[in-house]
Predict the structure.
Amino acid sequence: MRVLLVEDEPVSRETIKLFLQSKSFDVYDAEGGRQAVVEALRIEPDIILMDLIMPEMDGVEAISALKSMSWTQSIRFIALTSSTDRDLHDAAMAAGADSVLMKPFDPDEFVRSINLQ
């Protein structure tokens, strides 16, 4: 499964990427929303794991931009956040996220969420 991980924090991005690779996922990464849009068009991922709080283009804006394109509408999105702000969670879901996972997340729950078809 091709996964696009979008995370602006370098240590978190690398940690999550290595974990997913150890679970046999084909992982690509982007450090922000703008790069995520470009990478999604280039690699055609099966799922996008999108951090919500990022500079420039945040996760909600990136999800909305990708969901507005016809061929990316069917990509699954999992929003990742450490924020407990319900309005942010609701905005992510309204933009097209399929679910919101709170950081830090349980590794087994994380893998199960990705594997849902």
Notes: The chain has a mean pLDDT of 94. The radius of gyration is 13 Å. The domain at 2-115 is CATH 3.40.50.2300 (Rossmann fold).
